[in-house]
Write a structure and sequence with these properties.
It contains seven helices and two strands, in the order E-H-H-H-H-H-H-H-E. It is mainly alpha-helical. Strands 1-2 form a two-stranded parallel ribbon. Helix 1 (13-28) packs across helix 3 (60-78) and helix 3 packs across helix 7.
């Protein structure tokens, strides 16, 4: 049966509670930290000279679509009524709106060390200790809006700039691709500082703390953010029905991206699935 992913701001009190309790149980079972490790392992940058699947590559969207499904399935093994909500950051743009409420993800980090001290994922609850990451910090951190060098969340106009591009991706298939929906949505821009962060990337920077870097899965908002990114891909697919995942064929031997990106019908590590198999999800879930 097809299930529905809802806007987090529309969840009922009961739906919020069930989602939080399922997340905490997946964490208690030790499964959640495996998701963090996977994202760290596959967070490969342009300069590393090896296969990229999760970021800075065409497979950014199908990779995270499968990643979301894996977490959602883990949640539904705990509670079959739970689905992943999405956070529409073009509408809920303040530090006190959903999902930053006491009964959902908690709020901003405190000024001294950016530790999140409110909500069910606060370190003091004993239910959300960080065990996988690039630092030794055991507590969840956030810096909503960036206290130093403040930035704003992306707008609807920022998204439209990406959504109107009918081409999925273009050579060189990495963070420097000047055109293509994938990189415009993923958000690797030119220049330095905040000007180089667009859409998806800008949201990670706006949340700050644990959401910056390969260990960003440590903040539960990662899933709500990427569910929205996944919904945007679905809308782009509906809008540009004749356009599909690119590259259709692997880059030629001897070119800079040979063996470094996944073509449409190639397997996408760490799973035995292809980007083509992840393009259409209408028989699994839909978005409200």
């Amino acid at each position: 049966m097809v299930y529905t992913r809802k806007n987090v701001s529309t969840l009922t009190e009961g739906e919020r509670r069930r989602f939080v309790m399922a997340m905490l149980e997946v964490k208690r079972r030790g499964e959640y930290d495996e998701f963090v490790r996977t994202h760290i392992d596959y967070y490969v940058s342009d300069g590393e000279g090896r296969l990229r699947t999760a970021h800075m590559a065409p497979s950014f969207l199908p990779w995270h679509r499968r990643f979301l499904l894996d977490l959602e399935n883990a949640l539904r093994r705990v509670d079959s009524l739970v689905t992943l909500p999405y956070w529409d950051w073009t509408k809920d743009r303040t530090t006190t709106s959903a999902p930053w409420t006491e009964d959902l993800l908690g709020g901003n980090g405190r000024r001294s060390d950016r530790q999140v001290t409110t909500g069910p994922f606060a370190y003091a609850t004993g239910n959300w200790t960080l065990r996988e990451g690039v630092t030794d910090t055991e507590f969840l951190t956030r810096d909503l809006g960036r206290s130093r060098g403040p930035i704003d969340l992306p707008t609807r106009d920022d998204l439209e700039w990406a959504m109107k591009d009918p081409v999925y991706d273009v050579s060189p298939w990495n963070s420097t691709s000047a055109r293509g929906f994938r990189n415009r949505l993923e958000g690797w821009g030119s220049g330095q500082g905040s000007a180089a962060w667009r859409n998806h990337n800008r949201v990670h920077r706006w949340v700050g703390g644990a959401m910056v870097g390969g260990a960003s899965v440590n903040d539960p908002v990662f899933w709500l953010h990427h569910a929205f990114i996944d919904m945007l891909w679905s809308r782009w697919q509906h809008r540009h029905r004749d356009h599909h995942y690119l590259p259709a064929e692997p880059p030629d031997p001897g070119t800079s991206q040979h063996g470094r990106v996944v073509a449409r019908h190639e397997k996408m590590p760490p799973w035995d699935v292809t980007p083509d198999e992840m393009q259409y999800i209408g028989r699994i879930y839909r978005y409200a």
